Amino acid sequence: MNALVQTGGVEVAPLDPRLPFGATIRGLTREHLADERVRADLYDLFVQAGVIHFHGEDSHEMQLEISKCIGEPEQFPYPETWVENHPELVEIKYYPDNGTCYRVDGEYLGGWVPWHTDLIYTDAINRGGVLRPKKLSQHGGRTGFLDQILAYERLPDDLRARIEDLHVVYSPDINLANSRFARCGSVEFVRGARSFNNIIRKVYQRPLVLHPLVYTQKETGRKVLNFSPGFAHGIYELGGPEGDVLLNEIAAYCTDEDYAYFHSWQPGDMVLWDNWRVLHCATGIPVDEERVMYRTTISGDYRLGQRLRWETGELERIDI
């Protein structure tokens, strides 16, 4: 990280001294990112840290430029969420009169999302994303991050051996009250935003997909516990109760919030995360408040996803 560290006015520090993942960068500008050495160092830091918090220049252009250091921003598959004139940006919003709401352990929460990987219900998982606030709520609204390399390292040896060659089936059901392994207590769906309702009408038009429970980060050789509690349907090789018991055991490790970083947003913040190895969640806000965030979807695919074709019982592997 020589060029990044030596760039004038830029500070690089650990994200949270309690945790072995994450970094924070202050003072980085688009002018700094004109230097290819800085861009390369930023990518290397991304691979090592998994989550990077930026504070400083705050614009659509800066958000997209940071994203381009990792890969090309792509259009999210649901046009209902696109930002006008910026289809590479998704608007994640909650309004009291137009927002998805759940009742979680008796508390009504707007914009709540349990631990998950973005687009895990497709066979090509995007590389990452950059999240940035447009309008913040007065209460709540934190975003949590959990490192799945750290989760794998904490698994007992016998559990690692049991899951090495297993795959998880994922469903495109975005009603997160149906998430069976998110370990978040009692969850009841209350209402959906207009964009939610448009998207979920197509839930049966998309295939189920498989992803391996474990894969290896190619740049470092580190193992990743590749499990998204949100959208998980079960284990392909172990259908029924046996697989469910195993996934609940895995979920206890990968959603242990003692090892999580929760970001409390401020104006001027952006957070970049590696979607191939970091789970994230949204803690939600009071239902009478508003919150609007912008997010990029950074293209890329780790090439291990598979579509399941029920009519033949076969797997349709993507090209390697």
Task: Describe the protein's architecture and organization.
The protein has 320 residues and is α+β, with helices and mostly antiparallel strands. It contains seven helices and 22 strands. The strands form five sheets. It has an eight-stranded mixed β-sheet with strand order 1-2-3-18-9-20-5-4, covered by helices on one side. A five-stranded antiparallel β-sheet has the order 16-11-13-21-22. It has a four-stranded antiparallel β-sheet with strand order 8-19-10-17. The protein is globular, with a radius of gyration of 19 Å.
Task: Please summarize what this structure is.
By secondary structure, this protein is an alpha+beta fold. It is built from 7 helices and 22 strands.
E-strand count: 22
Name the overall outline. Answer: globular
Order of H and E elements: HEEHEHEEEEEEEHHEEHEEEEHEEEEEE
Helix content: 10-25%
How are the strands ordered across the major sheet?
1-2-3-18-9-20-5-4
- The helix tally amounts to 7
| Protein structure class | alpha+beta
Query: What is the C-alpha radius of gyration, as a whole number of Å?
Result: 19 Å
Percentage of residues in DSSP E strands: 25-35%
Distance between the ends: 31 Å
Q: How would you sum up the major sheet?
A: 8 strands, mixed
Indicate the mean pLDDT. Answer: 91
